[in-house]
């Protein structure tokens, strides 16, 4: 797999990110944007993660990249065009089901990694985003999704701990049991055959 060219790598490395924790740059063809399938092709990805042990990654020409689906959906709903047509005009609607299915994949993966202290807050807050989308069919920021999830289940302590670490105190810790409880709750509420009224509804 070839890495992207030097120019994009340099731009991402040197970019000012403000209050963000990094950059995720995904490059796709117009054909993929107009008709994404469940594992759309990715021309290039460059990721910069400030403060993470990963730090920087780059890959090119990935034949099937299912994590691109929520990215396309978010870009269509809330993206801005720096040049040319609006995202809504160049990105086709992405069905909700494959986005929710992919979220379920990550929830199950994270369920076995509740002791991952470096990514604990990311897992919890992204799980809240997955949950919010599955119920309301809207994309939200980590902070917005956390507030929504706490409004639905105020007793999930891991959410408050994740917000504290993410927004105020990077050195604070999350409780493993609380993370597991949050992930189990989201899995229960987003599994298609769950008896929860939230599953697959608005």
TrEMBL record:
Lineage per the UniProt record: Bacteria, Bacillati, Actinomycetota, Actinomycetes, Micromonosporales
Q: Which Pfam families match?
A: AadA_C
Keyword Transferase listed? The answer is: yes
Q: Which UniProt keywords apply?
A: Transferase
- This chain belongs to which protein, by name? Adenylyltransferase AadA C-terminal domain-containing protein
Q: Residue ranges of the Adenylyltransferase AadA C-terminal domain?
A: 90-185
């Amino acid at each position: 797999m070839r890495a992207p060219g030097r120019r994009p790598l340099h731009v991402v490395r040197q970019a000012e990110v403000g209050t963000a924790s990094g950059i995720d740059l995904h490059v796709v063809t117009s054909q993929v944007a107009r008709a994404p399938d469940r594992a759309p092709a990715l021309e290039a990805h460059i990721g910069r993660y400030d403060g993470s042990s990963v730090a920087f990654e780059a890959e090119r020409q990935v034949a099937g990249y299912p994590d691109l689906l929520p990215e396309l959906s978010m870009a269509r709903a809330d993206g801005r065009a720096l040049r040319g047509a609006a995202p809504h005009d160049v990105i086709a609607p992405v069905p909700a089901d494959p986005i929710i299915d992919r979220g379920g994949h990550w929830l199950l993966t994270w369920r076995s990694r509740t002791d991952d202290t470096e990514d604990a807050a990311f897992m919890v807050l992204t799980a809240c985003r997955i949950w919010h989308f599955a119920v309301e069919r809207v994309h939200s920021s980590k902070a917005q999704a956390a507030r929504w999830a706490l409004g639905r289940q105020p007793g999930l302590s891991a959410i408050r701990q994740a917000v504290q670490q993410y927004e105020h105190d990077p050195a604070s810790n999350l409780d493993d049991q609380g993370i597991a409880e949050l992930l189990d709750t989201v899995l229960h509420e987003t599994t298609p055959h769950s008896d929860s009224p939230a599953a697959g509804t608005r």
